[in-house]
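Quiz preparation item.
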């Protein structure tokens, strides 16, 4: 456990452009003993997760068949993001709000769309829904002010 000042000092050493190049930012907090030992604790089985990942990778393989150098959403060039990662009006409003409140860059915008496309693929959805977009935005936690403290 580090004091908030120590965490903030460390994070200030990481430049914004470097953080922009990381697709998923997640703050991991310690899990309490009671939660670890709870019998009511349920989690998804690793084999189930593995199958969803395999299916999502197959979806992406088919989507990018014939695209040179592209085999996953992460590899998608910026000029093709809007074509592959179409979002509905409600999603556009959500993303615009997040962009303004979190002061996100154009690079972060592209990364959020790519991650939301991947989340939709993992869910077996042909379209990017608002919940997929919200989850992708949530994964930009290092873009938020006062992260880690």
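Solution:
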């Amino acid at each position: 456990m580090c004091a908030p000042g120590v965490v903030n000092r460390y994070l200030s050493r990481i430049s914004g452009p470097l953080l922009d190049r990381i697709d998923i930012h997640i703050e991991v907090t310690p899990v309490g003993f009671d939660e670890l030992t709870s019998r009511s604790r349920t989690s998804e089985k690793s084999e189930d997760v593995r199958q969803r990942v395999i299916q999502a990778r197959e979806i992406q393989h088919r989507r990018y068949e014939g695209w040179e150098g592209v085999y996953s959403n992460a590899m998608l060039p910026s000029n093709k993001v809007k074509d592959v990662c179409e979002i509905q009006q409600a999603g556009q409003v959500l993303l615009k709000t997040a962009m303004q409140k979190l002061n996100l860059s154009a690079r972060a915008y592209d990364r959020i769309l790519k991650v939301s496309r991947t989340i939709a693929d993992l869910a077996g959805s042909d379209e990017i829904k608002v919940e997929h977009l919200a989850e992708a935005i949530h994964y930009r936690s290092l873009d938020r002010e006062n992260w880690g403290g």
